């Protein structure tokens, strides 16, 4: 039986949620139970520690803007919006017995297994954290060609899930985002994760009609399984 506490927070604003998970991490002790928070956010751009201002392709102070929130997670700029399953694992890696590189691999594996539950084949791309799908046939099982085309490592691919993590005193926060059925247009206002022209997709746009609640439940279960000690 899992000792991880899973909370479905529903639709919650980004900044207070970020502050809450940072406070949780700062206050935790060696005995604090691990948690996974699952939620979705109103339209928000978030910028990671490696983020560059020129990857935001609009004036953040202009009219009809979506706020850009500076964060302390890894990675560069991404977008959160309704219809996206966001999960924040708040874990003590030292107690679980694995390091950050394996943690990232396990996060990606949980996303891949969630996509597989809905018949979609997710792929890793070396050096580009997150999960990608074939645009011409997201349900095909064949592995990607290796090595990828160095001139265009994302040729024929769309990004369906993003990662951005923070580890403090062996404890994790921030996490992952899987696109289910959302307005994808805001991705056109950034270079997603720092990659110019990278196409972003969701389950709906590749032909999978499924509700947020169902995907959130499957994703939480897979995270619980794949992140186990």
Name a few traits of the molecule.
three-stranded mixed sheet; 229 residues; 4 helices; 10 strands; alpha+beta; BirA Bifunctional Protein, domain 2
In short:
This protein is of the alpha+beta class and 229 residues long. The chain has four helices and ten strands.
Q: How does this model look, in words?
A:
The protein has 4 helices and 10 strands. It has 229 residues and is of the alpha+beta class. The chain has one domain (5-226): Bira Bifunctional Protein, Domain 2 (BirA Bifunctional Protein, domain 2, 2-Layer Sandwich). A hairpin with a 2-residue loop joins strand 7 and strand 8. The chain is globular and about 50 Å long. The two termini are 12 Å apart.
End-to-end CA span: 12 Å
Radius of gyration: 17 Å
User: What profile does the largest beta sheet have?
Assistant: 7 strands, mixed
Query: What multimeric state do the chains show?
Result: single chain
Question: How many structural units, i.e. domains?
Answer: 1
